[in-house]
Amino acid sequence: MNELVTGTGPSLLRIAKFRHFEEATNLARRTALAATDTGPLAPRLHSFSSSADEAPGPSTFFSLNEFGPDASSFSRSVPATPLSSGGWSEKSFDAARGDSLQSGTATDLKNSVVESAARTSIRVVHHDSAPTFRPLEQWTGSVESVDREARTFVARVISSSQVRDEFADFTFDEVSDDDHELINEGSLFYWSVGYEIAASKQRSTVSTVRFRRVHVWKRPQIEKALIRAKSLTAWLLE
Amino acid sequence: MLSKIGPSTDQLEITLIGPGYGECVVIHCEGEWIVIDSCRDARNKRPGACEYLTSINVDASAVKLVACTHWHDDHIGGLSEVFQTYKNAAFCLSGALKSAEFAKVAEIFRDWHLKQQLPISSGMDELTDILTSIRESGRRPSFAIANRQIWQSPSGASRLVALSPSDETTMQANAQFATLVPGLWTDQRRARDASPNHIAVAMHLVCGVHTVLLGSDLEEHGNPHTGWSAVVADSARPQSKASLYKVAHHGSETAEHPRIWADLLKDKPITVMSPFSKALNPLPTAEQRAVIKTRSARSFVSADLEARSIKRRGPLGRIVGQRNLRLAQPNLGWVRARTLAADPTAVWEVEYAGDAVEL
């Protein structure tokens, strides 16, 4: 885990955290910008971190200018506008530095960030461990009905701690873009609510909906079932 | 729970059991019992029909018929257990299921790979369990189609006749089942409910001098050959008008047909219905409740859906509170109506308990 921070001690502001520094493509595609400070920034930061656990979609990106004066130095050095492709690209870092970044390697990217940070009193902090997730409750869900116009779906959810099934309403925005194609009647997903605890011990509430990529129906399975179906049909119709 | 005194032999009894999601009707007529559909008590997972019949000390051998009006989840919860409990009972299901296409869907979803891994059914489990049980016992199910008698009392004076599905519905059902057969290399999702719900078996019960209309989940979508249009237009159907109506499809607008009230029911009948909590706007809606109440002498819902949720506090409560999280099966409600079967002047005496309410 790598973080961009500014300030010191109690006023420390974590502006961005990075994973996978080693791979330039991953950095471009998957880096989640997050801040986990408390105080006046907290509500906005919480809502951001609730969906930024792994691979944030475009909706999770934001303007760093929103973070106010403390973050302004950072916003001067790195473009604050989210990219439609869903993440920071090599070019965006390139433009921020005002010089060229030809190779696009991980080291170059890392260096570019560090150099930018150095110019604006922002430091890169490396952490050894990724954030941990402490669940408060987890459910297995089955999509019951989908309203694509309203971008909502109703699901039956079964909690790991309750014995009684419940129905719950979800919006498509709670599901990562990659999973939207999986939102169909009968699809299965996992819903978790809990705390994400950063290596710095900072805690934020998190709600994640992850669709299960299930097995597919294969020919031998269908063929066996159809043989049994012939027998059942003969019995039903006899 | 209702009082634990069972009906006398000369009493006709209709008991509707239903949580917010699920429905079961228990009938007593001339000393025999019939169970139509099934739902579970969410607290102990037992079928509501078994709990009720046990509570009033009904001998298992007195249950003569177990019927499944259609295969949607809210009507078959625990049905295989009901069938196992009442081993002397005949089993009846919708004639629309008597097809090769249904057999394909049933057998394919028997192999749903997640069956053993998740607490979610394939959508077909209850029905395939029952069919397996019947086949292994060497018995045969009967199939309900429009105007077929599916039960008769020992005296021959009382009978239960199916009003649906129509021939057209049966043909449409085959096409509908074909759409449920998954394609190769498609995701293994659970079987979805087919709709609109035309294969449901509506029933006409004559017991002594009284008639009861059991609407199941039969709907109406304007096709003269399916749904309630086909029922009301059928001159061969039983003609006596009902004084008690188990309202079709949870009192939804899609189960409305003006001729139900004009041709099949007496003026101002007793109406009973079970709600449907799954929908974003649960059934019956406030508007439909008002309409049904206006047309009824008295009207009852087996479960009140207001504020049925598990209380969660702290951060968990704040997060899930935004999801409109609601119990799939609130506590059971019971609505029991009794009258003297042979007395034309006898009125329905209605008792209700649990989460049931009178409108």
Describe the structure.
The complex is a heterodimer of chains A (238) and B (359). Chain A is an alpha+beta fold. Chain A contains six helices and eight strands, in the order ββαααααββββββα. Chain A has helices at residues 24-30, 42-49, 69-77, 90-97, 106-119, 219-237; strands spanning 2-6, 13-18, 123-126, 132-147, 152-159, 166-171, 188-197, 203-211. In chain A, the strands form two sheets. Chain A has a five-stranded antiparallel β-sheet with strand order 6-5-4-7-8, with no helix packed on it. In chain A, strands 2-1-3 form a three-stranded antiparallel β-sheet, covered by helices on one side. In chain A, a hairpin with a 6-residue loop joins β1 and β2 (13-18). In chain A, α4 runs parallel beside α5 (106-119). Chain A is elongated. The model of chain A is unreliable at 4-12 and 18-123 (pLDDT under 50). Chain B has 359 residues and is of the alpha/beta class. Chain B has a single domain, classed as 4-Layer Sandwich (Metallo-beta-lactamase, Chain A). In chain B, α3 runs parallel beside α5 (125-137). Chain B is globular. Chains A and B meet through β4, β5, β6, β7 and α6 of A and α4, α10 and β14 of B.
The CATH class of chain B is Alpha Beta
Helix fraction bin of chain B: 10-25%
Q: Please give the alpha-carbon distance between the first and last residues of chain A.
A: 67 Å
**Helix count of chain A?**
6
Structural class of chain A: alpha+beta
- Largest sheet entry of chain A: 5 strands, antiparallel
What percent of residues of chain A are in strands? 25-35%
Q: What is the 3D shape of chain B? A: globular
Lateral arrangement of strands in the main beta sheet of chain A: 6-5-4-7-8
CATH superfamily name of chain B?
Ribonuclease Z/Hydroxyacylglutathione hydrolase-like
Give the oligomer, counting copies of the same chain as homo and different chains as hetero.
heterodimer
The arrangement of helices and strands of chain B along the chain is EEEHEHHEHHEEEHEEHEHEHEHEEEE
The overall pLDDT average of chain A reads: 58
What is the spatial order of strands in the main beta sheet of chain B? 6-5-4-3-2-1-15-16
Strand tally of chain A, please?
Answer: 8
